[in-house]
Specification:
three-stranded antiparallel β-sheet
Length: 113
C-alpha cells in the first residue's frame, strides 16, 4: 500500500476499505466506465448500462457522496462526470492483472481467450 514502513492509522485503513467496498459493485464500475468517456445524463447512463433509472440514480448518489462523481446542473438536466480521475489508474491495474490471469487460466484449460 505504501512504499515505506510507516504504520497507517486504523482510521486511514477504514477509509481505504470503504473506497474498495465502493468499487466492489459491478453497476458502479459500469457507471464509472461509462463516465470515463465524458459527462453523461442519467438517461444516457440508463440507456448505456441497461439498468433502471432508480438503480442508476442510487449508485450515482453513492458515488457522489464518496467524491468519485460530480454533478452539474444544465437547465432541468443533471450531468455527471468523474471527480476523481485516479480511480481509472486503480481500475487499469486491477483489470490488467485480471486479464493476464484470465488468459493464463484459459491457456491452461485449452480454451480460446
Amino acid at each position: 500500500m505504501t512504499e515505506n514502513n510507516d504504520v497507517m492509522p486504523d482510521e486511514m485503513l477504514e477509509l481505504i476499505a470503504q473506497r474498495f467496498r465502493l468499487l466492489s459493485d459491478p453497476m458502479r464500475l459500469k457507471i464509472l466506465h461509462q463516465l470515463q468517456s465524458g459527462e453523461k445524463s442519467v438517461t444516457e447512463l440508463v440507456n448505456n448500462t441497461g439498468a433502471s433509472q432508480p438503480n442508476v440514480s442510487k449508485h450515482l448518489s453513492t458515488l457522489r457522496t464518496h467524491g468519485l462523481v460530480k454533478r452539474r446542473q444544465q437547465g432541468n438536466m443533471a450531468l455527471f462526470s468523474i471527480a476523481a480521475p485516479f480511480i481509472f489508474d486503480v481500475c487499469e491495474i486491477v483489470c490488467d492483472s485480471m486479464k493476464t490471469e484470465w488468459e493464463q487460466r484459459s491457456s491452461l484449460l485449452g480454451q480460446p481467450n
